[in-house]
Amino acid sequence: MRKTHQTKPLSKAQSANAQNGKHKVAKVSQEKILQNLREILAYIGDDPNREGLQETPMRILRSWEKIYGGYKQKPQDVLKTFTEGSCEEMVVLKDIEFYSTCEHHLQPFFGTISIGYLPKDRVLGISKLARLVEVYARRLQIQEKLVAEIADSLMQTLQPHGVMVVCKAKHMCISSRGIEKHNAVMVTSAIRGAFKKLEVRSEFLEMIK
Ligand SMILES: [Zn+2]
């Protein structure tokens, strides 16, 4: 099964949030989090004190540094633009692998993201697009917001003629709970500026096929 969603541009507030990476964060001590995780283990019916689970809260905590590392990064740190070597041809980076976490179930969703933009005066190093994906994927996300945040931060930083982002992903919250087929792929896209024109969009879709 395939679901296709297109995202609207973010509101001003959402988009400012996307740019600054600012979130209301309450500081919680590590000891309290470890205790909470032990309680979760007990709640699901296991014994947090048995040998195999003793170090589990700490392992989970360490894994969060990578999984949620995007909160510590700002898109503007990644998106250094330059005018030299800029062109008017479409720039495409296809099938960037990503791993993210669904904000509704705290379960992984993962797949690929393809990004295209039509430069005006400025371009980016191509590896920067992959780093931008990391900034937004390594947070709690929904797939619709992920593509929108990537597209909007490129529009604001690069000010190109247009941007398009396509994401294809599998959601563990769907397959692990047995709601739908294991191979269901969700497809979302964000279309900005010149990519609203059919011929531009077609060129991009042909390139990422
Ligand atoms: Zn979910």
Widest sheet, order of strands: 1-8-7-4-3-6
Cα separation of the termini: 19 Å
Q: Which CATH class of the largest domain?
A: Alpha Beta
Radius of gyration: 19 Å
Q: In short, what is this structure?
A:
With 209 residues, the chain is of the alpha/beta class. It has helices at 12-20, 30-43, 51-54, 56-67, 75-78, 126-137, 143-158, 172-175, 198-207, and strands at residues 2-7, 81-82, 91-102, 108-118, 123-124, 140-141, 162-171, 185-193. Strands 1-8-7-4-3-6 form a six-stranded mixed sheet. It has a two-stranded antiparallel sheet with strand order 2-5.
Task: Report what the structure shows.
The chain is α/β, with parallel strands linked by helices and 209 residues long. The protein has 2 domains: 154 residues, GTP cyclohydrolase I, C-terminal domain/NADPH-dependent 7-cyano-7-deazaguanine reductase, N-terminal domain (GTP Cyclohydrolase I, domain 2), CATH 3.30.1130.10; 38 residues, GTP cyclohydrolase I, N-terminal domain (GTP Cyclohydrolase I, Chain A, domain 1, Orthogonal Bundle), CATH 1.10.286. The protein is 41% helix and 26% strand. A 6-stranded mixed beta sheet has the order 1-8-7-4-3-6. Strands 2-5 form a two-stranded antiparallel sheet. The longest helix has 16 residues. The chain starts with a strand and ends with a helix. The site of zinc ion (ZN) has 6 residues, from loops. The site of zinc ion has 6 residues, from loops.
